[in-house]
SDR family oxidoreductase
Amino acid sequence: MSRRVLITAGASGIGRAMAEGFAAAGFDVWITDVVAASLADCPDTWRKTRADVSDEAAMAHLFAEIDAEWGGLDVLCANAGIAGPTNAIGDIDLAEWQRCVSVNLEGAFLATKYASPMMRAAGQGSIVYTSSTAGIYGYPNRAPYAAAKWGIIGLMKTVAMELGPEGIRANAICPGAVEGPRMEGVLEREAAIKGMTRDEVYAGYAAGTSMRSFVTAEDVANMAVFLGSDAARLVSGQVIAVDGHTENPDPKV
Ligand code: NAD
């Protein structure tokens, strides 16, 4: 029987690259996303469910479906996240804060809550969280995002301790700045905030890493596939940056 992976927010960006990576590694792939058109654009060989990770009823239904169809789950990639507001701390609206924390952190919690009974019953499993370098260093004008990504690290550490004795591993990947449509929006907003051009901000981000580079979604997916594999059988409780080594988390170049 093939191994089975669920990837939240698997229809685009990093999640889609993870789905492609696990499929190439021979996994059966199940993805969720909120955008129906993005789901429709993904291969029909993947199972697809439209679900908002912050909606507990939808998540409970999703995992009941997985249990009924697959009878278990080997790897969970709790990947869904939104950028949230880009405001100074004194200008953040509480509702925007709550929505950002809800999707990023509560979504990861809910996926873990419903995946863990299946993994415990099997006595094995690997949970891969998508945090961010924002969760390690902070991120100016992105307080709820950074707080939620830091929260994911706390969740991961706890899950690793709590479920490790039952054969379940948990790790968090912290991507740096990933090329793609989402990053283009970030670059435009940062440029407006800092009074710079998009290209200057781009150069500044790359210059803030030892490798002088942006990250690709495939770079992050490669790490997720490794963490989901038996090659990582004793890797748990780890925060793993895939960021080209951040030297300066807030480049002002
Ligand atoms: P993306 O915007 O390209 O894709 C995100 C996907 O999440 C979209 O398909 C969207 O429809 C889906 N989504 C949004 N809200 C959802 C919800 N409530 N429930 C289910 N799905 C939802 O983003 P990405 O860059 O691929 O980001 C994926 C993860 O990586 C996120 O957790 C993000 O915070 C994290 N991350 C991204 C970067 C980056 O530079 N892009 C850096 C560090 C961490």
About this structure: The mean pLDDT is 96. The two ends are 52 Å apart (CA to CA). The chain has two domains: 4-176+217-242, 177-214. The pocket of nicotinamide-adenine-dinucleotide is lined by residues 8-9, 11-15, 32-35, 38, 52-54, 79-82, 103, 130, 132, 175, 177-178, 180, 182-183 (CB under 6 Å).
